[in-house]
Amino acid sequence: MHHACAAELRAILGADGLVEDRSRRTAYECDGLAFERRLPDLVLLPRDTPEAAACMRVLRRHGVPVVPRGAGTGLTGGATPVAGGVVIGTARMRRVLELNVTDRFARVESGLVNADLTRACAPHGLFYAPDPSSQRACTIGGNVANNAGGPHCFRYGNTTRHVLGLVVVTHDGEVLDLSEPDLDPLGYDLVGLLVGSEGMFGLVTEVTLRLTPSPQRVETLLAIFPSLDAACDAVSDVIAQRLEPSALEILDKLTIEAVEASVFAAGYPASAEAVLLIEVEGSDVEVEVNANEIEAILAGRGALELRRAQTEAERARLWAARKGAYGAMGRVAPDLYVTDVVVPRTKLRDLVHRTTEICRERGLKIANVFHAGDGNLHPNISYDRRDADELARVLDAGTRIMEVCIAAGGTLSGEHGIGLEKQQQMRLYFSPEDLAAMELPRHVFDPEGRMNPGKTLPIRACMETRTKPLDEVTR
Amino acid sequence: MDAATLVDYAKSLDCVHCGLCLQSCPTYRLTGRESSSPRGRVHLMRSVAEGEAPADADFAEEMEFCLLCRGCESVCPSGVQFGRMMETTRGALSEAVERPLVEQLSRSFGFATVLPSRAWLSFLAGLGRFAQQLGLPQLAGQLLGERGAALASMPTIPPANERALLPEHSPAEGPVTGEVAVLEGCVMPELFGRVNRATVRCLTAAGREVHCSRGATCCGSLHAHNGELDLARRLTRETVEAHEALEARVGTELPLVVNSAGCAAHLVAADHLFEHDADFAPRARAFARKVVDFSASLDGPALERLAARLSGGPARRVAWDDPCHLCHGQGVRDEPRRLIDLLPSVERVPLEDSEACCGSAGIYSVLRPDTAAQVFAPKREAFERSGADCLVTANPGCQLQWDAGLRRAGVTAPVLHIAELVAERLPDAPRSDGA
Q1: What's the mean pLDDT in B248-264?
Q2: The domain at A4-91 falls in which architecture?
Q3: Which of B111, B176, B318, B402 is buried most, with the most CB atoms less than 10 Å from its CB?
Q4: Nearest C-alpha in B relative to A28
Q5: Which fold has domain A333-407?
Q6: pLDDT classification of B140: cutoffs 50, 70, 90
Q7: Complex prediction ipTM
């Protein structure tokens, strides 16, 4: 790229803050949804908010679309530059700016890796609760954009419950500072609006986050079930009994086989049809009483074996294996389509059945590993994106799964966001009036339609997405 | 460039794009650039193989920028064989890329002439020792500016008596717990003869009859990492044959104890180089199974025997830094810690990110000193936070990198090979740091 726009950006960021050449840009053509790819015209890696704002002003002047990107671990294509333009990566903005142990909040740059925040505050007896499976790689900024969840969000709630403030660079390069950790902001709660907006309302550069006291005691239970049905019923029972574990996860046989073959092997029994992984936290007494009651329910539902992690290392291994499940499925096929739907928890058993059937009917290989406590299903469909026919069947199955979940009173997404993946299916859930209303705030934050265009809200006409390459825009 | 031979396409399909490898990668952490991450590099390789991206100079540069520490393999749930993919790609690149003549000649001199030859290695070590005695490197440092600075920071070459080769046979002390062979190595005897002698000292104290073959010099590990696959194959083959000859002479099968993590990681996978050589592959496979790291070779009765002989030695607070090719390359993590914890008057303190690369990466620190120094910086900070007064590792490259890096920062703590730390607690042992 030899034009004025790139030169201006280079002057702001220095040569190593730009990724210009064709080969290196390839790494930015998709996120975890690898069958949708488009090469960005340029990638920018600012080091702080002022640099990001300066870049945004230049890009505004040249009318260039902007796609924010954290670590590219999203699963819905949210960070894929479908309309071309510039990707702004936050990977060089990863400082912890303030750790307020007394008031229990942290101010961090949005490129900070999720797990690094807990690592930074653990010595003070605090942790950051939302723990997506990709937490060792994904960024806080990406978590904010997608209102990310994770196993422990069953107890602690998704990202939005933990975001106290934000600094956001708007489409025209203005820095909107909403970083004060106010519990009840004066006027509109803009922070609430920005969380989950998938990069369409601006580029989040700093985040103020709630830190949670580490529990006095944690007990990790493992129950082995002869069938997926029994495991689902046990979950429904635990919830109906008003017991509150911090996490309730189900892994099925295929998932267990894949993780046990990997570097994250943790001793999950390969013979089990389903395993329920449960965590109970709190004071000593609370944990003991809860764990015993839960174990009684599990036994009542036919658990073949009950175990408790004996050491902290064993606990860590069980969780690392659970969180490596997506990656471990790479052993089954080159690609994995991770569906993310939510269903009423009383209907878990039926809907797990239904999703499995939908995949079987289409000749697809499905594994189930999901946040059962939240009713958040992740039917994992293995496929090979080079096989167009198989890909078509995968997408068809995905849509069908969303339809049956919505029909059962569920919803489209639990934690991954909409991105490209579920854009068209938004129509299954929302009326045209709803969707039109959603355009309004988007227009306020992004009147020129340059912020992560072509995402989340269904496209009505092809004119809505800018597809002009940067070269032409800026020539 | 031919995309088909440039990339191990089948292996590139193992990556499911989850991204769990990103933070394990020193070059991604340094640059924040995804093309410099394991997932990015695999994606680039696959794109090149599928004809969607060019195999141009930028592609080649990203491949060579990798330290090949294999830290990504330890966190990859999908089991992507990143190291082997990278060796294939570098192998094809080294044939295809046009290098400047000076670089071409010096690579060829180093890889094909010096490393495989004991005569060349000792001649150059002697020459270097002589030059260092005269103070020439310091002089060059002053005269040549930046280029000379590299010369001035070269490791100190020890005197001739420390560069003597190991005896072909060293008898066990007391009752025999087993017979082993040790790998003498190429640069090891020239720069780290004391480590080799400490290794043998520990093994004989543990009741091992120790044999050493003179039949081969370099094992080819550096060649394989740098894309010189034909030479790597030749040298690995010579190493296998030398070991077979030694076994024939001694009249029994021998485990091959290796004190250099880089060499051991290469040799435990030696058979992969001969996938297309049906005659030699079984021999390479049989050999690979016998290769064992020094600390992992000491267990059961041998370890008990060694422990019983340990006494005294200087009091040290040590930080153990896992060499990449020990923890990621061989999966050896507990054994060195177990050995250190046996030692009297040694306290082991935890070192943060001990499995992260120190930037040595074979000859990477010579080829890219600036990057190597940047990769090292957080390692030094972690060492200083640990409160240790001694750094212990198990690979010559790491030892040089740590030693140079700490000295540059004015830190005087000694850097020891784990065998040295053990040996200085055996009867009549000198202090390893000469203090």
Answers
A1: 97
A2: 2-Layer Sandwich (3.30)
A3: B402
A4: B34
A5: Alpha-Beta Plaits (3.30.70)
A6: confident
A7: 0.94
